[in-house]
Write a structure and sequence with these properties.
By secondary structure, the chain is α+β, with helices and mostly antiparallel strands. 32% of the residues lie in helices and 38% in strands. It has a single domain (2-125), classed as Nuclear Transport Factor 2, Chain: A (Roll), CATH 3.10.450.50.
Length: 131
């Protein structure tokens, strides 16, 4: 089952990159919960529509581009991924590195949660996995 969840995660990111909300929503539970990284102003976003809107708004200031999954760790009902991307501001031209870890939780073939972390160890601990 876990490789299927890794595939679902990749399909969700591909759908997001294409701006395909319908395909992205089909991979998420209606009550999916998104928890941004610790210093993000929003604490928790609940529901497919709100999650999609949040992710689109967070990506809006940057030039388009795909996120790289630099490392993926399979944990049965959870997938831990090192998410990276070199970002460039659409208006400012400022360049920053997006470098976070995300833990996806799946149930019945749908993503029910995604939580971002600054460090690998934090993400592994949140997923109940060891180094």
């Amino acid at each position: 089952m876990s490789q299927e969840n890794v595939d679902r995660m990749h399909r969700a990111f591909d759908a997001f990159t294409r701006g395909d909300k319908v395909a992205w929503c089909e991979l998420c539970d209606p009550d999916v919960e998104i928890a941004p990284v610790g210093d993000w102003p929003e604490r928790e976003i609940r529901g497919r529509e709100a999650a999609w809107d949040f992710l689109v708004a967070a990506d809006e200031p940057w030039e388009p581009g795909p996120y790289e999954m630099a490392e993926v760790i399979d944990g049965d009902d959870q997938v831990v991924a090192h998410q990276r991307r070199d970002l460039r501001g659409k208006t400012s031209g400022v360049e920053v590195e997006y470098d976070y870890w995300v833990v996806f939780t799946f149930r019945n073939g749908k993503a029910v949660g995604a939580e971002w972390f600054d460090a690998r160890l934090e993400a592994l601990e949140a997923a109940g996995l060891q180094e």
